[in-house]
Design a protein that fits this description.
The chain is of the alpha+beta class. Helices cover 26% and strands 27% of the residues.
Length: 246
């Protein structure tokens, strides 16, 4: 019996899972209608810029640095830095920006706790820090420019990626009577290559899981990496694969 793979590609909010979300499992995320900072992103970056000026902080020598700052906003509105092992490589490569974010964070005092089902809950807040934009180049109303990763030419790039996935995953020899779904996570790195391919949950058959993962890994065509403020960054994709008997 011939089996076909039906799937859709869905992208979770970039601020929530660009570097994975395993580390966040004990915390909540802000509902879409709620801001983690009073006045929203524009006010966050305005205050960040003003603190840089008031504290006479120094710009980073590398103008291409960028860091994805993540914090936990507690129920009382206080914050703590969220250590994320999946983000450690970026911290090392952009140490000046990493240090700058932690220094400025000490003086930011307009945090708003998340309201989940009528109660205040500790939640993850995240912001891209692009120092070159926040020093002399800062403009009123600034929010970092963000470009998502793309596969080949747009707007049909995602369709081409779907076709590549179908061609690359070998499911010969497997049979099933009921449909099921697997969710694949992978990163498009700053060079436009796929890496860190994982399954959220196993199908229960290791060889089948391996074929799905290997199929994604065999796609060698490069992506255009995601960019924040023109600087390439890692981009985490969430890819549901729906398998149905035909």
């Amino acid at each position: 019996m011939i089996k076909k793979i039906f799937f859709i590609i869905s992208l979770l909010s970039f601020s929530l899972n660009v570097f994975g979300q395993k580390v966040h499992s004990q915390y909540f995320f802000y509902p879409k209608e709620q801001d983690s900072y009073e006045g929203g992103e524009k006010q966050f970056y305005k205050d960040f810029h003003q603190i840089i000026i008031d504290k006479n902080l120094k710009p980073c020598e590398n103008k291409a640095e960028v860091y994805y700052l993540k914090v936990i906003v507690k129920e009382d509105g206080s914050v703590k830095y969220l250590k994320d092992d999946s983000n450690s490589e970026m911290a090392l490569k952009n140490k000046c920006t990493y240090d700058l974010g932690l220094e400025v964070l000490k003086y930011m005092d307009k945090w708003k706790s998340a309201i989940i089902e009528g109660e205040k809950k500790p939640a993850v807040a995240s912001f891209f820090i692009v120092p070159d934009d926040l020093f002399d180049h800062y403009k009123e109303g600034y929010i970092p420019q963000y470009d998502a990763a793309s596969f080949e030419s747009m707007p049909d790039g995602i369709s081409k990626f779907r076709e590549e996935v179908v061609r690359r995953i070998d499911i010969d020899g497997f049979n099933w009577s009921n449909g099921f779904k697997l969710v694949v996570n992978f990163t498009v790195n700053t060079e436009g290559k796929i890496q860190d391919v994982t399954l959220e949950e196993s199908s229960g058959v290791k060889e089948f899981d391996n074929r799905v993962i290997d199929g994604i890994k065999r796609i060698k065509k490069k992506w255009s990496p995601a960019k924040v403020g023109g600087v390439p960054v890692n981009y985490r994709f969430k890819l549901p694969l729906n398998f149905r008997p035909m």
